[in-house]
Structure formats: C-alpha cells, structure tokens
TrEMBL record:
EC number: 2.3.1.234
Classification via InterPro entries: ATPase_NBD, Gcp-like_dom, KAE1/TsaD, TsaD
Organism: Rhodosalinus halophilus
Residue positions binding Fe cation: H117, H121, D310
GO CC list: cytoplasm
Residues where substrate binds: L139, V140, S141, G142, G143, D172, G185, E189, N282
Top-level division of the source organism's lineage: Bacteria
Family: Belongs to the KAE1 / TsaD family.
Keywords, in A-Z order: Acyltransferase, Cytoplasm, Iron, Metal-binding, Transferase, tRNA processing
Name of the molecule in the record: tRNA N6-adenosine threonylcarbamoyltransferase
Gene coding for it: tsaD
Keyword Metal-binding among UniProt keywords: yes
Pfam family, one: TsaD
Record localization: Cytoplasm
Length: 341
C-alpha cells in the first residue's frame, strides 16, 4: 500500500509520549519517539497518583508532540493521521491525550484514530518483525499480564490473564519485602543468580487448575511468610537467605508463566509466540518461554525492550494498522478507563 506517516500520542499511565512513525512497503520506521516520564513526581507516594499524572500529562503532551515532530523533521502538513490511546488507563491522562488529539485533528484536518493501549502492546512485535497473524501474545509487565491470540489489529482472543497482581508488580513487592531497590525485577534477578531455587518450597498458583489464568499475589504472600519465619528464627535475613528466596520466587514465576503459555499455545494453535513487557527482560523467564515455543514447534519473537515499555511509537503503529483496515473515529471519540480487548 501507500506510505503512511502517523503521529501517535500516549498518556494512559505515567509516561507522556508522542511519536512519528512512517509505514510503507519496506516496513515501519520510527522517525521519532519522545517519552517524558513522571516517576520523579510519584516517587514520594509509592505509586502513581492519578491527579498528579493527569496534570503532568496536560502540561507535557504539547511539548512531547512538538519534540516528536521536530525530531522527525516533519510538520503536521506531512502527517496522514493522528492516533491516540483512548483507554484503558487512568481517565485523567487518557482524557488529556484524547482532547489534544481531537484539537490537532480538527485544526489540521486530519483523521483521528482511537487506539486501545493493550492492543498497541499486543501489536508491537509486528513493528520490528515480519510476524504474520495469528500469533500468541504473552504480555507481562508491571501492570499487565495477558495471554492473547492476535488475529488482526482489532481481532484478539483472550485466553487468560492474572486474576490479581501482574508479575512485575509481584517482583516489585517481593523486592520491597526483602529490602531490595526498585524496580524490583532486575534487583530480584540479580540476587537470584546467587541463590538456590529449591531451598524454599513456594506454591505454583493455579497450576493445578485447568485454563490459562494466572495468580501472583499468593506467591508474594508465601515469600512474606518465609521471610517472617526466618526473622523469628534467626532475628534477620542473611544475604544467602535473600538470594534463595529470590531464586525460589523467580523459579515459581517462570514455571507458572511457562506452563500457562504452553497451554495457551496449544489452545490457540498459533505458529508463533510473542512475548512483551518489562518482565520479559528476565533471563530465566525468557529462557523458559523460549523452551515452550521450541517444544511446540513455534517461532519465538521478542521485541526490543524500549518498545515493550510505554511509548507512543507503538500507538502510532497500531493506528497505522487500524487506518489501513479502514477504521477512524469522529470527534465523539470517548476516553475509556476500562476497555477490555
Ligand atoms: O513493561 P514495563 O517496563 O512497565 C509497565 O508495567 O508499564 O514493566 C515494568 C515491570 C516492573 O514491575 C519491573 O520490576 C519488571 O517489569 N521487570 C522485571 C525485570 N526487569 C523489569 N521483572 C523481572 N525481571 C527483570 N529482569
Ligand atoms: Zn502499558
């Protein structure tokens, strides 16, 4: 098809982002991708504060868009459509993005495309790899945990997901329990390297139940219980205790993710497994998932980490796919705090 140049906007959580993506016969090129984080604003509160996030998005979106256009070396006159995350996410931030996108679309006379944030994550492997539909997608991050069959830019079948915490959230909580720094995932992985995974017997939540749903909050509680028993017995934790707990936790997460993914791959019969999200950076987990794909005779695709975390290039890419499929929205495009795939 023809070449499309799409401006994307993302503001559904704590990153304010804008990007310009060009898609043509040769593939997709990211001309610019600006991400303005807010973690410094929320650090003191131990989590994202919705009101602070909304105000920061409203202040920074404009800057992000201007920088993205500048870096890409284009003006709005060269943009073919504007794509914006319309949900799910924190309503204030999503609203800020949708309102700005409408303003730009109306002012420049551009088509407007509302993008589901989870769809943007799920389509990411196609941005960097020649990956045909359908494929099985495992999305594992600090906020998400889903197994989806992806059949098209708007065709997803959800096979399972977490019923409580996301795995990254569990890594972060375990790190906090053991006095390790945030983000917890890399810290726990570092400790686990020197640990013995079999000293502590941790549960394998939901593994004995059919289906592809997952659970991680019980695992975190089990780590807490072991920690408190050690403290009661010996007055504190040794470096080795900490390493062994991390190794046991990581092994449990890897095992349940691998087994549920194995089931989902069998159920979907998709020829490829794509894994995305911050937790996919974990070497033990990645290795377990690669083995699952290999055992099933499926291809394994992992997009680069900088595209797995929140950014607007993936929103622009999803927008391009939707636009080619004939989708665009009117000025009545709504911000949807909840928007299941
Ligand atoms: O996708 P992501 O960057 O952000 C969102 O969730 O939006 O994921 C961040 C999560 C954090 O919870 C972090 O602890 C986890 O991914 N993470 C890891 C590793 N690196 C990051 N978890 C396990 N092992 C890692 N090496
Ligand atoms: Zn996200």
């Amino acid at each position: 098809g023809e070449t499309l140049t799409i401006l994307g906007l993302e503001s559904s959580c704590d990153d304010t982002a804008a990007a310009v993506v060009r898609q043509g016969a040769a593939g997709t090129e990211i001309l610019s991708s600006v991400v303005l984080g807010q973690s410094d604003l929320h650090a003191a509160f131990g989590g994202v504060v919705p009101e602070i996030a909304a105000r920061a998005h409203a202040e920074k979106l404009d800057i992000a868009v201007r920088r993205a256009l500048e870096t890409a070396g284009v003006t709005l006159a060269r943009i073919d459509a504007i794509a914006v995350t319309a949900g799910p996410g924190l309503i204030g931030g999503v609203l800020a993005g949708v309102m700005l996108a409408k303003g730009i679309a109306a002012g420049a006379g551009l088509p407007l495309i509302g993008v589901n944030h989870l769809a943007a994550h799920a389509l990411t492997p196609r941005l960097t790899h020649a990956l045909p539909y359908p494929y099985l997608m495992l999305l594992v991050s600090g906020g998400h945990c889903q197994l989806l069959t992806v059949r098209g830019p708007e065709a997803f079948t959800r096979l399972g997901g977490t019923i409580d915490d996301a795995p990254g959230e569990a890594f972060d909580k375990v790190a906090r329990l053991l006095g390790l720094p945030q983000p917890g995932g890399p810290a726990v992985e570092r400790e686990a390297a020197a640990g013995c995974a079999t000293r502590f017997a941790l549960p394998r939540p939901l593994l004995d139940r059919p289906g592809c749903d997952l659970s991680f909050s019980g695992l975190k509680t089990a780590v807490l219980r072991q920690r408190d028993m050690l403290i009661a017995e010996q007055g504190g934790l040794t470096r080795q205790d900490r390493a062994d707990l991390c190794a046991a936790f990581q092994a449990a997460v890897a095992e349940v993710l691998a087994e549920k993914t194995r089931r989902a791959l069998a159920a979907s019969a998709a020829p490829a497994l794509a894994v995305a999200g911050g937790v996919a950076a974990n070497a033990a987990i990645r290795a377990a998932l690669e083995r699952v794909a290999e055992d099933a005779g499926a291809a394994h695709v992992a997009p680069p980490l900088r595209l797995c975390t929140d950014n607007a290039a993936i929103v622009a890419y999803a927008g391009a796919e939707l636009f080619r499929a004939g989708r665009h929205d009117g000025m009545d495009l709504a911000a949807r705090p909840r928007w299941p795939l």
